């Protein structure tokens, strides 16, 4: 299987000990639940602000 499908509606990024909430699936059976946006570690600075 190329993908793992999360079977719960939990939105946490990491589910500890949650082996029963995932299921192996091929790419044809995988149903993406939407795009999960993670915050950038180093966000780009706003160019309209003035420097120090």
UniProtKB/TrEMBL annotation:
<dbReference type="InterPro" id="IPR001267">
    <property type="entry name" value="Thymidine_kinase"/>
</dbReference>
<dbReference type="GO" id="GO:0005524">
    <property type="term" value="F:ATP binding"/>
</dbReference>
<dbReference type="InterPro" id="IPR020633">
    <property type="entry name" value="Thymidine_kinase_CS"/>
</dbReference>
<keyword id="KW-0418">Kinase</keyword>
<dbReference type="GO" id="GO:0004797">
    <property type="term" value="F:thymidine kinase activity"/>
</dbReference>
<dbReference type="Pfam" id="PF00265">
    <property type="entry name" value="TK"/>
</dbReference>
<keyword id="KW-0067">ATP-binding</keyword>
<keyword id="KW-0547">Nucleotide-binding</keyword>
<protein>
    <recommendedName>
        <fullName>Thymidine kinase</fullName>
    </recommendedName>
</protein>
<keyword id="KW-0808">Transferase</keyword>
